[in-house]
Amino acid sequence: MQTFTFNHIALSVKDVDKAVAFYQKVFQFKEIENTASNSATRWLAIDERRQLHLIPRPEADIKTNKAVHFALATANFDAFVNFLQELKIPYSDWRDTPNKDYIRNDGIQQVYFQDVDGYWMEVNNDV
User: Fold this and answer.
1) Which end of the chain lies in a sparser environment, N or C, as judged by fewer CB atoms within 10 Å?
2) Which GO molecular function annotation, any one, does this entry have (predicted)?
């Protein structure tokens, strides 16, 4: 049986510069070389092995809902929520209660918020 590891997530974005700035501001992702092509797609390192690829699509009709999201975990959950507040980035729990975290049945805390293109992200403390 084959095994797989997560490699990257790619998102279509209206303005790639604004998207890069958002992910660098919120997550401090380092920009890395796009080794696949000479396109305007920009790559950010999530960690040493995983990446976020931001593909410029200024004319794209980006439709999102909270059930389609990607999640990142941090051991410093409370500090991250405070950081979102400092950045004035609105967040909510799963039920859309503003400025509230959610505690799942398994005890994991999580918050949801959107990037500049409306993509949903979850940050939780499942480390």
Assistant:
1) N
2) lyase activity
